[in-house]
Design goal:
Layout: E1 21-25, E2 39-42, E3 48-52, H1 60-68, E4 73-77, H2 81-97, H3 103-123, H4 127-146, H5 148-157, H6 164-183, H7 188-199, H8 210-213, H9 221-227, H10 230-241, H11 246-254, H12 275-290, H13 301-309, H14 318-324
Antiparallel strand pairs: 1-4, 2-3
Length: 330
């Protein structure tokens, strides 16, 4: 994939999957490559019309016309989803390893594809999709580990909408980048092993009703009980998918624990909270403050840092916070 061919601006939310049809983001398809599987366009009558057959060259002019008309998504059938995931993983790997591609273009390609991968994992959290997501995330983690310049671009690219998959993409990027600084250049394999846990830390939110996730007002006690289940639900879902490493388990189940013991689900305190989870927690807090939510507008980076600075004693790790600031320096 040539990253210059990416459709870089797409603020349109994808249509939900329905009746075995899944939307795919045009930003993740190379117009100078071939179609990874049969691709369809949805008509106004809700019918699916063939756009490109598997392995046939893509048509740049037709794709650009779709984008010009505000159509950012094509559709594939459920049976073709493994082909599409393999395509995403292979094209990402190719981009990350290409010495002629700039760090900025690598970051753009990785960010778009990572959101696409996590959108699928969260909308269809079946075990095969979660396993494919884990595989496809690896090139993103490897880019952050190997390319400081690309990491800076990824940090700047983080989006602001409140979808769970966008939140998880952002937290994954921040957390892997922070872990790289915290553990140092001699522990790159360790950082790579954390990637899936960071990007899939909120998988349990798939079991939280959307009306609770997006509720603009204060949650009831019963709604809070539902929310507080998602760390353990995430751990269970990772176990059911067959990818529950110890790193992923710790991150999933502990990422809402707080230093003063007022977190959940187990009320752990201080050093009882694993550093992996503390890294994820800090990235999670920053992302939540700087993204639009149903219950608040996003804060600037400066204001978010001021808010976080007040949370050292009760919630956040001071040393990690000081390292986190390095991600935002020139």
């Amino acid at each position: 994939m040539d990253p210059k061919n990416l459709v870089s601006e797409n603020t349109t939310l994808p249509p939900p999957p329905s009746d075995g049809w899944f939307p795919v983001d045009l930003r993740c398809l190379d117009p100078e490559g071939t179609s990874p599987c049969d691709l369809y366009r949805r008509t106004r009558e809700n019918e699916h019309v063939l756009f490109a057959r598997k392995m046939l060259p893509m048509d740049r002019q037709v794709r650009n016309r779709l984008v010009g008309n505000g159509l950012y998504y094509l559709f594939i059938q459920d049976a073709d989803s493994p082909l599409y995931f393999d395509y995403l993983k292979n094209t990402l790997t190719s981009v990350v390893r290409d010495p002629n591609t700039t760090s900025k273009k690598k970051a753009e390609a990785v960010h778009a594809s990572c959101q696409e991968i996590l959108r699928w994992a969260f909308e269809e959290p079946r075990a095969p999709f979660i396993r494919k997501a884990q595989e496809a995330i690896l090139p993103t983690v490897q880019l952050i580990v190997s390319d400081d310049s690309a990491t800076k671009h990824l940090v700047r690219l983080t989006a602001y909408d409140h979808s769970t998959y966008t939140h998880s993409t952002n937290v994954g990027i921040f957390a892997v980048a922070l872990a790289k600084i915290f553990y140092g250049a001699g522990a790159l394999k360790q950082v790579e092993s954390l990637g899936a846990g960071f990007f899939l830390h909120d998988l349990g939110k798939c079991r939280v009703p959307i009306e609770i996730l997006n509720k603009p007002g204060k949650l009831t006690e019963q709604e809070w009980r539902v929310i507080r289940r998602h760390p353990e639900d995430g751990q269970t879902m990772l176990q059911e998918s067959g990818i529950l490493t110890e790193e992923a388990r710790v991150i999933a189940v502990q990422h809402h624990e707080k230093a003063d013991g007022n977190g959940y689900p187990h009320g752990l305190k201080g050093d009882d909270i694993h550093p992996y989870a503390r890294i994820c927690r800090l990235a999670d807090v920053y992302e939540a403050l700087t993204a639009d939510r149903s219950y608040h507008n996003r804060h600037s980076t400066f204001d978010a840092f001021k808010i976080m600075h007040k949370q050292f004693d009760t919630d956040l790790d001071r040393k990690l916070f000081e390292l986190f600031l390095q991600l935002f320096t020139a």
